[in-house]
């Protein structure tokens, strides 16, 4: 396997693993409606906390939509680069 193929298997895999280990989190408020506030990225087994929100109406969840968008952008970007490099090396 050529070096550039190894590189383009290792780098996106490493970035995807980092995205899965440190997903985006949101603070969800469920009372008389539904609202959410992004909390940023944090380790999967140590979700972020917001000290101002200690009541039962709040919950912290992984922002699955944003995580899927990030992984899709990663796949498309490295797919395009891989195709361009493969065409260039022929």
Your description of this structure?
This protein is of the alpha+beta class and 90 residues long. The protein has one domain (3-89). The chain has helices spanning 3-21, 64-89, and strands at residues 24-30, 34-41, 58-62. Strands 2-1-3 form a three-stranded antiparallel β-sheet, with helices on one face. A hairpin with a 3-residue loop joins β1 and β2 (34-41). The protein is elongated. It starts with a helix and ends with a helix.
Question: How is the secondary structure organized here?
Answer:
Blueprint: H1 3-21, E1 24-30, E2 34-41, E3 58-62, H2 64-89
Antiparallel strand pairs: 1-2, 1-3
Helix pairs in contact: 1-2
Q: What is the structural class?
A: alpha+beta
N- to C-terminal separation? 15 Å
The mean pLDDT is 84
Low-confidence stretches: none
SSE ordering:
HEEEH
Number of helices: 2
Short description:
With 90 residues, this protein is an alpha+beta fold. It is built from 2 helices and 3 strands; from the N terminus they run αβββα. A 3-stranded antiparallel sheet has the order 2-1-3, with helices on one face.
What keywords describe this structure?
about 90 residues, alpha+beta, 2 helices, 3 strands, about 50% helix
């Amino acid at each position: 396997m050529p070096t550039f193929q190894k590189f383009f298997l290792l780098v996106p895999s490493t970035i995807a693993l980092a995205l899965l280990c440190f997903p985006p989190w949101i603070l969800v408020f469920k009372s008389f409606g539904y609202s959410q506030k992004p909390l940023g990225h944090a380790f999967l087994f140590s979700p972020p906390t917001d000290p101002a929100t200690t009541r039962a109406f709040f919950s912290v969840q992984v922002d699955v939509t944003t995580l899927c968008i990030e992984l899709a952008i990663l796949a498309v970007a490295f797919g395009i680069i891989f195709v361009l490099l493969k065409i260039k090396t022929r």
